[in-house]
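Structure representation.

___
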Amino acid sequence: MALKEEFERQGNWLFKYRSYLPIGILMITLLVLVYESLLNKKLVFCSTTYDIICLGIGIIGLAIRVYTVGYTPKNTSGRNTHQGQVGDTLNKTGIYSIVRHPLYLGNFFMWLGAAMLTANIWFVAAFILFYWIYYERIMFTEEQFLERKFGETNHQIATNENATYYLD
């Protein structure tokens, strides 16, 4: 099987279970917190400034998601698992004219804030690597869906006055 088909197969599986897999990340985060605070005798929540920074990063992610969901027109650039595939038009406006996957960017910052609370640099680095591999496959699969649906004529994803973004 070619790498392209393997990425798409993995992306479809990850997309299907995307609501449940982050629970595993949360559990691992809690285990690292317990390890750092109890077994390693390291006070994780000792710096109010650091905790506020972590919370701020998470809130930035939440704000990106709220803005994206609040200002994205219905039936644009989307996929649903229960209703089948949707996406009557390709969204090239709003935040999608700046970022190709704003919801996943928001998710990244939300989870990064939680991962940083562990104050364990190795855990944060592992989280970033996991997130990259996890969402890379989902994004690849979604872009394949959009390319098949809208064809080569809509190869250009987003344009604003300063930049143009493309699928490939």
Remarks:
- The helical segments are 3-16, 21-39, 48-71, 102-116, 121-150.
- The longest strand covers residues 156-159.
- Residues 90 and 150 are 8 Å apart (CA to CA).
